[in-house]
TrEMBL record:
<feature type="domain" description="Zinc finger DksA/TraR C4-type">
    <location>
        <begin position="94"/>
        <end position="129"/>
    </location>
</feature>
<protein>
    <submittedName>
        <fullName>Transcriptional regulator, TraR/DksA family</fullName>
    </submittedName>
</protein>
<dbReference type="InterPro" id="IPR037187">
    <property type="entry name" value="DnaK_N"/>
</dbReference>
<feature type="zinc finger region" description="dksA C4-type">
    <location>
        <begin position="99"/>
        <end position="123"/>
    </location>
</feature>
<dbReference type="Pfam" id="PF01258">
    <property type="entry name" value="zf-dskA_traR"/>
</dbReference>
<keyword id="KW-0863">Zinc-finger</keyword>
<keyword id="KW-0479">Metal-binding</keyword>
<feature type="coiled-coil region">
    <location>
        <begin position="13"/>
        <end position="40"/>
    </location>
</feature>
<dbReference type="InterPro" id="IPR020458">
    <property type="entry name" value="Znf_DskA_TraR_CS"/>
</dbReference>
<keyword id="KW-0862">Zinc</keyword>
<dbReference type="GO" id="GO:0008270">
    <property type="term" value="F:zinc ion binding"/>
</dbReference>
<dbReference type="InterPro" id="IPR000962">
    <property type="entry name" value="Znf_DskA_TraR"/>
</dbReference>
<keyword id="KW-0175">Coiled coil</keyword>
Length: 132
């Protein structure tokens, strides 16, 4: 499965390049989104530091909640970006589009909806059942 030709993956070089461009484009979008979120987080911190006079418990709680939300957003963006980075690595290795659990091809429809998918529907459902 690590061979990069059409026999191993069922994709032509043109199809592989189209997938690569799509994955890279989304990775770049997430990178820009992350950088924007970092800037917004820094602005929030600066406002917070400069505007603490007269804060009561409710004000402090609101600021803490805003800070937690901003940090959660940053983590979410980084996680999604890491998924696309992993998908690009798998594409380079010739394993993109194949389930990491059972090795079966991941349906094209699933990859169109969730391009960074690493498992087929059956393996994903099994993993979610075990986690519940």
């Amino acid at each position: 499965m690590l061979v990069h030709d059409k026999v191993a993956t069922g994709r032509s070089q043109a199809e592989t390049e189209q997938i690569r461009q799509s994955l890279q484009s989304r990775y770049d979008e997430l990178t820009a989104e992350y950088e924007q979120a970092v800037l917004q987080s820094q602005v929030l911190r600066l406002v917070e530091v400069g505007d603490t006079a007269g804060d009561d418990q409710a004000d402090s709680g609101t600021k803490t909640a805003e800070r937690d939300t901003a940090q959660s957003l940053l983590r979410t963006i980084l996680d999604r970006r890491a998924q696309f980075e992993h998908a690009l690595t798998r594409l380079d290795e010739g394993t993109y589009g194949f389930c990491e659990g059972c090795g079966a091809p991941i349906p094209v429809e699933r990859l169109e909806i969730f391009p960074s998918a690493t498992s087929c529907v059956a393996c994903k459902q099994n993993r979610e059942r075990r986690a519940a």
